[in-house]
Every structure is written in structure tokens, then in C-alpha cells.
């Protein structure tokens, strides 16, 4: 029986009922709905709708319902209730009879559903922060282990300058640090309780909504009831946080897929996160990473979907708003799963030091060093750049690296070049030179690792 039966003489068409019902996905808000209901029962005592004893009975029954739900959340799906709010109310009435019918006084499912979702978002943010921090930790530990792994750094996917695997890991650490701080920002803005906004114009019972907000663990209560029941900024912000986070993960995945390719062979992924081909026995495919890269589509799709649902929606509550949940649930579940999977990939990744170093030596990634050497000998950079360009062309023709050219061969391009050029062209010298903050020198990478460990308290 629907909560709103009185006005209707005909039952809903089954197809419409299925179309309209949200229990099949909002059952996930059971805990939040029960906690919100307990707080509401307390508020009803302050406005003399419930006696202290009645409130205690309701609270007790609601707590019993909560432990039942926690044991087996899927049992909720057996019911044909319209949504989680109707389900909780139905169960409460089954337990305590007519007293249960008093609970909805002064409340609407409009303020209830957004309160539940905000409580759920707060909880999810905590879970996501844990998962992000776990991956940040994996990145730092992996960086610490591979400070000596010299590999090529790329621009335009062309070998550009040597870096280390540690420096690469720490780049993703920075992105994940911003992802975490974005969630903290979102949390601050959403930590405001809509409960007591009624259907749209505010509750008709003069309660202390700030107190009610505190009971629920919110920092404060919303200022405007029309806005409160129809605001879904927090959903958009979380979907945006998830989209940016997933874009970071997809770049991480793509880099590793390239590093793992037969062409690069810089890393080897563990059997635990790869799969074989049904036809080609030699194959070991980076499926975990490909799925991380691929799933960014559904998360960005969820953001686009939610933005589109909200566009042009008149105040205040409209049923369109029920569309907020599936997008959000799917996107946040996906993000969480991908964070865990990325950490799993790092757990036993192997770095092929010899191949990484060999590749770093190729591709004239020390050409900038030769230009800087000429600058130090008094040649203006633009000219030095041109000279080195010519030297590279000649080295390519001779199939040699720059450091393999003899001094006579080098002097053809500039007479200032001397024997002291050779140490400058070594990979270690290339790295050591980048010693300003954020650079790839051993000391800078070491201090970045120390800073990260301090941030994570590890
Ligand atoms: N299931 C609904 C939702 O998720 C609850 C609010 C229903 N309110 C209403 N006036 N029909 O938004």
C-alpha cells in the first residue's frame, strides 16, 4: 500500500509502479533513513507531537530495524514498497502499530530523501578518502623502492629527458593528493542539513533545526527550504571529483599499459592483475589497467547525465531529482573499485631496470645537456640549440649516441667542446642537474618521498 493512497481510487498500473519506484536502488540508504528518522523523532518531542515515552519506543524499534538491515541489506528488495522511506515507515508500523504512523508528522520525503543522500555522501567521502590514501601510500612505497630506476621521460610520447620511475610515481601521488583535497572541499559544502524543510516551504512545527542538524552530525542547517529540497550541488560536485579522479587513474593506467607493452618492456605486471587470451597462448594482457582506463567513460557519463537532469529544473522538488542516485552510486562505486585495483597493480609490479636505462640512453635525451654545456661556455642558448640540432642529425646518420661521437666529431659543430663534455652527457649528470624543487635529482626525489611520508604519517 502506497503512502499516499487516500487521494486515489485506482491502483497504479504495474508498469508505472515499476517505472516510478526507487526501492531497487535507494535501498542503499536504509541506514541513513533510519538514523534520520531517529533524529526526527527527537525533534517531534520538542514540538510536543511525541511524548518522551513514545519517542523512546520509536527509537528502540528503529534501532532494531537498523540491526536487521545491517545483517542483510538485500532483504529490503523483497518488499514492493515504493522507496526506502516508505519501506522504513511500513516496517516501523508493523513493529509498533499506530505510533509508527505519527513519525511522518511535519516531514516530507522531499527533505528526507535529500537528507539521506547527504548523509550517505558524507560516509562515502570518508571511504573514498581511505581508498585514495591507500593508493597514495602504494605510490610512495613504490617510489621509494625505485629511486634508482632511470627511464625515459616523454613529451609527445617521444623520449625527451631521463627521469626515474620514482619521479613518475610521485607525479601520480600529487594528483591523488589533489583528489583527496577536492573531496574535503566537497564535504565542507555539503555538510548542511536539509531536514525540517518539509515538502518545499519548511516544516510547520517550530523546531530548532540547528539542533536537529547537530543530532545528525551536520555542521549546520540549510537557510532556504526551497533550495534545500531541490539542491543537488553535492551530487554534481562528487561526480566531478570522481570524474577528475578517474581521469587521473586512466592516465596512470595508460602510462603503465605503454610501459608494459612489448615495445617498451619497462615493467612486468603480475599474473594477479592480468589475463590470458583464449586463442593466443603467449598473451598476458593488462586487463586491470585497461578496465580502469575504460571505466572513466561511465563516470564522466554519470556527471554529464546528472548535469543534464538538473538543467532548467523548476523549483522546488520534482521527480526528476530521483534520477540523482543511480548515477552517483555507480560512479562512486566505480571510482572506489578502480582506486583499489590501481593499488593492487602496484603491489607486485616488476621494473625492468636494464630496459628502462637502455631506453633512457636512446633518443638523444641528453641533447639539452649538450646545449646547456655550450651555454656554460658562453654560447647564447638559441645558437647552442641550433648547434646541438646539427650534432644530433649527424649522430643519427652515424647511428651513434651523442656521447659516442669522438671529440673531433663533436668539434666540427663547435670548437668550444672539450673532453669535459663526456661526463655531462651521462644519464646521472642529466638527473643530478635537475635539483631545483620538483625536479628529478636524487635529493629532490628523496625529499618528495619524505614529504609524502610525513603527509601520510607513514
Ligand atoms: N523516491 C523519491 C526520491 O528519491 C523520494 C521523494 C518522493 N517525493 C515525492 N513527492 N514523490 O526523490
Describe the structure.
The protein has helices at residues 14-20, 23-26, 30-46, 52-71, 84-96, 109-145, 165-190, 209-215, 225-230, 233-260, 287-310, 324-347, 353-361, 367-376, 381-398, 407-411, 421-424, 427-433, 442-455; strands spanning 150-155, 158-164, 192-193, 220-221, 267-268, 350-351. It has 458 residues and is mainly alpha-helical. Strands 1-2 form a two-stranded antiparallel ribbon. Helix 3 (30-46) runs antiparallel to helix 4 (52-71) and helix 6 runs antiparallel to helix 7. Arginine binds at residues 22, 26, 83, 109-110, 113, 317, 321-322. Residues 22, 26, 83, 109-110, 113, 317, 321-322 line the site of arginine.
How much is the average pLDDT?
96
Strand order of the largest sheet: 1-2
- Report the biggest beta sheet as strand number plus sense, adding barrel if it closes: 2 strands, antiparallel
Strand content: under 5%
Order of helices and strands: HHHHHHEEHEHEHHEHHEHHHHHHH
Bound molecules: arginine
Q: Based on DSSP secondary structure assignment, what is the total number of beta strands?
A: 6
From the spread of the alpha carbons, the general shape counts as: elongated
Please state the structural category: mainly alpha
* Helix count, DSSP H or I runs of 4 or more residues: 19
End-to-end gap: 55 Å
Low-confidence sequence ranges: none
* Oligomeric state of this protein: single chain
- The helical percent reads 55-70%
Radius of gyration: 30 Å
Amino acid at each position: 500500500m502506497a503512502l499516499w493512497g487516500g487521494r486515489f481510487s485506482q491502483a497504479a498500473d504495474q508498469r508505472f509502479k515499476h517505472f516510478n519506484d526507487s526501492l531497487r536502488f535507494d535501498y542503499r540508504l536504509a541506514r541513513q533513513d533510519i538514523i534520520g528518522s531517529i533524529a526526527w523523532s527527537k525533534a517531534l518531542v520538542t514540538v510536543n507531537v511525541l511524548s518522551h515515552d513514545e519517542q523512546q519506543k520509536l527509537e528502540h524499534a528503529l534501532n532494531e530495524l537498523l540491526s536487521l538491515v545491517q545483517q542483510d541489506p538485500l532483504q529490503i528488495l523483497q518488499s514492493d514498497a515504493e522507496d526506502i522511506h516508505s519501506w522504513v515507515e511500513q516496517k516501523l508500523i508493523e513493529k509498533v502499530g499506530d505510533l509508527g504512523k505519527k513519525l511522518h508528522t511535519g516531514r516530507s520525503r522531499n527533505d528526507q530523501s535529500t537528507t539521506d543522500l547527504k548523509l550517505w555522501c558524507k560516509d562515502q567521502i570518508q571511504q573514498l578518502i581511505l581508498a585514495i590514501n591507500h593508493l597514495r601510500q602504494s605510490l610512495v612505497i613504490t617510489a621509494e623502492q625505485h629511486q634508482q630506476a632511470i627511464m625515459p621521460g616523454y613529451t609527445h610520447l617521444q623520449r625527451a629527458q631521463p627521469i626515474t620511475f620514482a619521479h613518475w610515481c610521485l607525479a601520480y601521488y600529487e594528483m591523488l593528493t589533489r583528489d583527496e583535497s577536492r573531496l574535503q572541499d566537497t564535504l565542507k559544502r555539503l555538510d548542511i542539513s536539509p531536514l525540517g524543510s518539509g515538502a518545499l516551504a519548511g516544516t510547520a512545527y517550530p523546531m530548532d533545526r540547528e539542533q536537529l542538524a547537530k543530532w545528525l552530525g551536520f555542521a549546520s542547517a540549510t537557510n532556504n527550504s526551497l533550495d534545500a529540497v531541490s539542491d543537488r550541488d553535492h551530487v554534481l560536485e562528487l561526480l566531478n571529483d570522481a570524474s577528475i579522479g578517474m581521469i587521473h587513474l586512466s592516465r596512470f593506467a595508460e602510462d603503465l599499459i605503454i610501459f608494459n607493452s612489448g615495445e617498451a618492456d619497462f615493467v612486468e605486471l603480475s599474473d594477479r592483475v592480468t589475463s590470458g587470451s583464449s586463442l593466443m597462448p603467449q598473451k598476458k594482457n593488462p586487463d586491470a589497467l585497461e578496465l580502469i582506463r575504460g571505466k572513466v567513460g561511465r563516470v564522466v557519463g554519470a556527471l554529464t547525465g546528472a548535469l543534464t537532469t538538473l538543467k532548467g529544473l523548476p523549483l522546488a522538488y520534482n521527480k526528476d531529482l530521483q534520477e540523482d542516485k543511480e548515477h552517483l552510486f555507480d560512479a562512486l562505486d566505480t571510482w572506489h573499485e578502480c582506486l583499489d585495483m590501481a593499488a593492487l597493480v602496484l603491489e607486485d609490479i616488476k621494473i625492468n631496470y636494464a630496459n628502462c636505462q637502455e631506453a633512457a640512453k636512446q633518443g638523444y635525451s641528453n641533447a639539452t645537456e649538450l646545449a646547456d654545456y655550450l651555454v656554460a661556455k658562453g654560447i647564447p642558448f638559441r645558437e647552442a640549440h641550433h648547434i646541438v640540432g646539427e650534432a644530433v642529425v649527424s649522430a643519427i646518420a652515424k647511428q651513434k649516441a651523442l656521447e659516442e661521437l669522438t671529440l673531433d666529431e663533436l668539434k666540427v659543430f663547435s670548437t668550444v667542446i672539450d673532453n669535459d663534455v663526456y661526463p655531462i652527457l651521462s644519464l646521472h649528470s642529466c638527473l643530478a642537474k635537475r635539483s631545483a624543487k620538483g625536479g628529478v635529482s636524487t635529493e629532490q626525489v628523496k625529499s618528495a618521498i619524505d614529504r609524502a611520508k610525513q603527509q601520510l604519517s607513514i
